[in-house]
Amino acid sequence: MREVTESAGQVSGVREMGDRGRLADRIARLYAEDEQVRAAQPSPDAHAAITAPGRSLGEIVDTVFAAYAERPAVGFRRTEVVVDSVTGRSTRRVLPVFDTLTYSELGERVSAIVAAWHAAGIGAGDVIAVGGFTGPDYLAIDLAIIRLGAVAVPLQSGAGPARWRAILAETAPRVLAVDVAHLGVAVEAGAPELLVFDFHGDDDEHRDALAAARERDDVGGIRTLPDLFDEYARRTPGESAMGREQSAARYVGRTPGGSAAGSEQSAAPAQPTVPPLSMTSANSAAPAQVDAPSPNSTPQVGASSPDGSPHSDVSAPDSSPHAETDDEALALLIYTSGSTGTPKGAMYSRRLVAHAWRFVRPQSVIDLHFLPMSHIAGRMSLAKTLARGGTAYFAAAQDMSSWFDDVALVRPTEIFVVPRICEMIFARYNAELARRTNPANPDPTVAEQVRADIRTTVLGGRVINALCGSAPIAAPLRAFMEELLELRLHDGYGSTEAGSPLIVNSRVMRPPVLDYKLVDVPELGYFSTDIPSPRGELLLKTATMISGYFRRPDLNAEIFDADGFYRTGDIVAELAPDHLVYLDRRNNVLKLAQGEFVTIAKLESVFATAELVRQIFVYGNSTQSSLLAVIVPSDEALRLPPEDLRASLRASLLAVADDLEPYEILRDFLVEPEPFTVDNGLLSGIGKPLRPKLTERYGPSLEELYTKLAQDQQDEVQALRADAAGLPVLETVARAARAILGCESPDSEAHFADLGGDSLAALSYSRLLTELLDVDVPVSTIVAPTATLAAIADYVDRERKSDQRVTAATIHGRNSATIAATDVALSSFIDTDLIANAPTLPLADDPQTVLVTGANGYLGRFLALTWLERLAPRGGKIICVIRATDDDTARARLLAVFDTDPILAEKIAKLAPALEVRAGDVAEPEFGLAQGEWAHLANEVDHIVHSAALVNHVLPYAQLFGPNVIGTAEVIKLAVTSKRKSISFLSTVAVAAQCTNFSENGDIATMSPTRVVDDSYANGYGNSKWAAEVLLREASARMSLPVTVFRSDMILAHRDYPGQVNVPDLFTRLLLSVLRTGLAPRSFYRPGRAHYDGLPADFVATAIVELSGAPGHRAYNVVNPHDDAISLDTFVDWLIEAGHPITRVDDYADWLARFETALRAMPEVQRAATVLPLLHAFRRPAPARAGSALPADDFHQAIGTIPHLSRELIGKYVTDLAALRLLTQ
């Protein structure tokens, strides 16, 4: 639970982006110009007395009431009696003015209540329950309980009879004080003696409610507070202002001059001069005790008066010196709101209650109170106002409906807001902004004018301190509030059980915090070893911590650990000692079916800022991969035509969802016209959603919606199967996307990824389109940067109009479990005349123009750079083919990959005249180029470096066939058009996975004549490169084509250029993940001497350029063959020695479980770069191998020296990842 109270250093707490002197200037101006603010300054002497060590609760409150006797203490909206002209019934209506009571007047009312209860034998240790709306009467009752040394049990307003009944049964109060609005609940709950407050005898509804309650046989005595005040006034006629007619008028239904009930006149408040209130009586019995240090004891309540007999003296207790009281006596039971389950009574001693009065900053305070007294934040904020001699104005309506009117009348100097209030202000701002904005001629100054009007007119223009609590506030909403207020919105954290404030603006408050620690939450991926900051559940020891729950010692083990720390249930990150950032409630994190973690409260706070959303309840469960919600539309939304409402709500939600991940977007929602309220049991007293109640009410309907959506999806697919033949291609493409992703009807210009599709969803989409349209639509086409839904439809149309195109199915048979080298024949891809004529073509020599495919890829960029450096000085050039919509975009895509370092970017700029870039796709016929462009390439290019490929270790062979096999065939076709051109082909060591008798320069078709097609790691990628090698081997043999194949293993970071690291590769993902989680296994390997096979990118690029262009066919295994015992374990050693906090976990399975959980718990923007998508590669320890798994004698001999991996290279990874903002150093 989050609370907020007074924060330290408010003058210096102006929001950082503004002028730090603005607040000081505002305060100085108010004190100089505003009489009310100046008169409300706290007395230095009173402040010193209140905060003096050793002062008891009674002494503190006595001091306050004596020091500020003639000041206004509380304000309440004036009401007047109105008579219905038809029915003749009298009711009261609220007027736009506040009346006040002074501290003396309020104290007199407290004395009246104390006298009556004292006479009834109620004293120290007795329990008094109170239910109703916060106001002067409630406050007077609460202060009377303090004076008697009794125990207050505030009841939640919207809890209902059953909840009240349970609390009353547990606490056994002597009296239940209840306002008229809750009188029916009290009667149904089986109340003991009732004291009815906020009662007006001239209101027919009040009289009817009282009469109905008195008719019940199962209710004890019922008295009204006006009756009690009248009795007190009669017995103290010479002393008490309660006997004055003006003061009594509000309670007994008559006005000055004796006007009859039903008059529309209203009474002004009396202004008597009375002695200060003495809050502790010598006649009071000794209070009940709470063994505070021990969380295992239960206090005894309900003690009788000292002699065991009822008191008969009805006069006020005297004001003699204070009786000795025990600060650890039980004073208050705060029952939790039930937002996470059954309410429990948190036990507050008199010392803890006094804390709220004692720790205050001496600053004038005039504020509006709307929080219930059943919530600790409401009680503490009210106590802090009174302790400073301020004026506490009470809201006119419990449901916050009067808040704007109230705050405009009060013009507070301090506002306490909860997120719901901020949402209301934001909605008002948006409505006013829309009203004033002329779409045809927008004025950029209107927004600031609206903010200024709200700041000065609505909020009164006097706010010098703004506090937010009770729940997290969304960052955009907080930014809006700070811009509106021109103040920092202080964020406070506390809890019912541990006290408040504990953390203010992310800084631990000492006192009251004595100690804290973070404990791991492995199931959610939070660990104290997390990088860059420890994360975990916050456990606290505070000076304001409760001793336990009332009569529930069985729960102590749940709320306290073995060392006495309170378990907050809140997840925080520790950025530095005493610098904690709240992340979430432990039970607010939901793991969806696909393994993604979502934070429900965060999403609700984001969606609540949508213009057409009044309230929202987000729902999900771990068997589903998407989220649903219940939405209460705003008033503006409800005015829309019903047929437009859902679409408008969805658009409103999407407008605030820019920073959310696809799985965080609501799949669907229910529309609920009835707001969530305290009265219908869906909100707590402070407006917090009660999730168990919301789930109870809407859960079944939402589960039915999940079932309906699943059925709709199946029905959509079935309908598509039946209708696709007769539908336009674009409609089929769009409906298939909707069926796969569960989205609304998508726009034709939408990209599949923008609709929430990932590579696995693209695979499902590909298969469905192929089935529906009888055209292979590869994943590479679906995820291409140019591929909108309309572009996918165009692709299908082109495929249908073209000659039968080669696919994996046409070469190997559909869904074949094995593929053969004999299937992969050049004649299946290239015209036989072109093949036959190729040997007769001239062979390009000493290349002056080099074509580089895939130059924007990781290795491709360094190959392009190396060739540029060689060719530019002698007037040569390189041509790069990049997938893009046009040549300019293609060039921009290429240049962007070099933009990590100014030196590198400058080098590319100098070499730019020798760089030509074309937009094309190697998997398309003739690269998708116009005929003239293809001919230009054929005539000009002398050497081809083919590094383009779809590198994906998850997709199957059939999906990689187009870009990796057909793309290679198109390269061969270019190599034998116009003239023969040598080819350098970038392959992979994965081709060796299914080879027998593998040799470095052997015939790949002989070493691996057949291949198994399955879903094992990188099977599809390895097979696609194998098929490409088969084609190239045949091309070299039949067409006298010089071909050099380079089979690389892991290509690591460039040793020189900052930021040049292959972020998506397995090694970088693993290293980043180890650094971010701070977790590594004791060893990545099975027992034995291990080695990691990888080489720096700069070395690989240079080696490939050096060894390219030789006649015939050559193949090199570009691997690290050294038996040097430099392994993944060595890299972890080096990182630890460099000071990186990494914990080694002895058990590999334990490490893997913790590692995966920690990765899944990361925000998506971080998680996307981790090893999580490829974690299956680490499911078991790797076999330890000395040196490379493949022979590399030919490569070693040809290139000479091969570098060992170094500590410096691993250190550069850390620097590079930090430069790319993937890691915090």
- Return the structural class: alpha/beta
Query: Would you tell me the overall average pLDDT?
Result: 85
Assembly context of the chains: single chain
CATH topology of the domain at 808-1044: Rossmann fold
Cα Rg: 38 Å
Level-1 CATH class name of the domain at 808-1044 = Alpha Beta
What topology does this entry show?
Blueprint: H1 22-33, H2 35-39, H3 44-51, H4 57-67, E1 72-83, E2 90-102, H5 103-119, E3 127-131, H6 136-148, E4 151-155, H7 161-171, E5 175-179, H8 183-188, E6 193-197, H9 204-214, E7 222-224, H10 225-235, H11 245-252, E8 330-335, E9 345-349, H12 350-358, E10 366-369, H13 376-387, E11 391-394, H14 403-410, E12 414-417, H15 419-436, H16 446-458, E13 465-468, H17 475-485, E14 489-495, E15 499-504, E16 507-508, E17 513-519, E18 535-542, H18 556-559, E19 566-576, E20 579-585, E21 589-591, E22 597-599, H19 600-607, E23 613-619, E24 627-633, H20 635-638, H21 642-655, E25 666-671, H22 691-723, H23 729-741, H24 759-773, H25 779-782, H26 789-801, H27 808-812, E26 818-820, H28 832-837, E27 849-853, H29 858-871, E28 877-882, H30 887-896, H31 902-911, E29 915-919, H32 931-940, E30 943-946, H33 957-975, E31 982-988, H34 1004-1007, E32 1010-1012, H35 1019-1039, E33 1043-1048, E34 1050-1052, H36 1066-1077, E35 1079-1081, E36 1094-1096, H37 1097-1107, E37 1113-1118, H38 1128-1137, E38 1143-1145, H39 1148-1160, H40 1164-1167, H41 1193-1199, H42 1207-1219
Helix pairs in contact: 3-4, 4-12, 5-6, 5-10, 10-11, 12-13, 15-16, 15-17, 22-23, 23-24, 23-26, 29-37, 33-35
